[in-house]
Amino acid sequence: MQSIQANGYPIHFNEKAYEALNLHLKENKYSNLFILVDSNTNESCLPNLLPLLETDLNIEIIEFEAGESNKNIETCVQIWNVLTELGADRKTLIINLGGGVVTDLGGFVASTFKRGIDFINIPTTLLAMVDASVGGKNGVDLGNLKNQIGVINVPSLVLIDTQYLETLSQNEMRSGLAEMLKHGLIYDKNYWEQFLDLKAIDFADFDQLIYRSVEIKNEIVTQDPTEKNIRKSLNFGHTLGHAIESYFLENENKTTLLHGEAIAVGMILESYIALHKNLISKAEYHQIKASLKSIYETIIFEDNDIEPILDLLIHDKKNEYGTIQFALIEGIGKIKINQSVENELILNAFEDYKS
């Protein structure tokens, strides 16, 4: 697959990825190399990567415990301390090998250590391949609030090797699929329609679907790197989805949701809102709802869950002047940003989702 040129860095795929990585190591005089992994990728992915590295650099592995609950500033402090103790300097390179938690946190650690050192993202989950590792967003959660602390700073390279997907569970694959479905809904109707019958998809061609998803995200981000305008379209399903994800993360009586599971709910809810703001047709809404519910289990919301979820909306990063801003689809394949939505319509969306 042909490499994609993003804003200030290339995205390489499969066999080309390691050729590009080793050339990069050869051409840049790094002092040492750190590979950041979580407890999952240390076991299942690192053994695949290490034999492919052609370098005489001293390599150190830094591992932290897997899971969204560890994507916080405390983990960053521990990693900054390890980097310092092991002699990292301004010419150190960090490779982030993992899913979205690793690439988000690792990019933030690298961007802030000694005011910024080079980093490379090697995403190992479908979600990270099509979303988290691309676009230059790096950061951590603040308590249960998603991605409240962070910077926009691009990696030196992104390397996508789809063989890592063999390490994932079906739930993790579905989680990543939600972002691919989102890309179709906001940008490319034909792409969305390829997913309407999952049984008909030849998964030998799945690499091409991943490629198109990365292409869509990159096309949007390239137009608006710092999210002042069209990049907000990527937040479709995330305004409510992030609030739901945060609520289930902090509530000990709830089973923590994967990112894509929460975003799938968010896309249904926000499609309902789009319907009642006359932005999509009933047929489009029913197609979206039926398609997503056929892939993702229906999440149970009790009556006393909704108000605390709505309270979390005020912390959404798109909000301006205290007003909650939504990105809503305007027909499948198009988007309308900066949409304000009254609470009553959000409550009605939850009622419809439960039906």
UniProtKB/TrEMBL annotation:
One record GO biological process: chorismate biosynthetic process
InterPro entries assigned to the protein according to its UniProt record, in alphabetical order: Dehydroquinate_synthase, DHQ_synth_AroB, DHQ_synth_fam, DHQS/DOIS_N, DHQS_C
Function statement: Catalyzes the conversion of 3-deoxy-D-arabino-heptulosonate 7-phosphate (DAHP) to dehydroquinate (DHQ).
Native source species: Flavobacterium pygoscelis
Pfam family name, one: DHQS_C
Lineage: Bacteria, Pseudomonadati, Bacteroidota, Flavobacteriia, Flavobacteriales
NCBIfam families assigned to the protein according to its UniProt record, in alphabetical order: aroB
Name used for this protein in its record: 3-dehydroquinate synthase
GO molecular function: 3-dehydroquinate synthase activity; metal ion binding; nucleotide binding
GO cellular component term, pick one: cytoplasm
EC number(s) reported in the record: 4.2.3.4
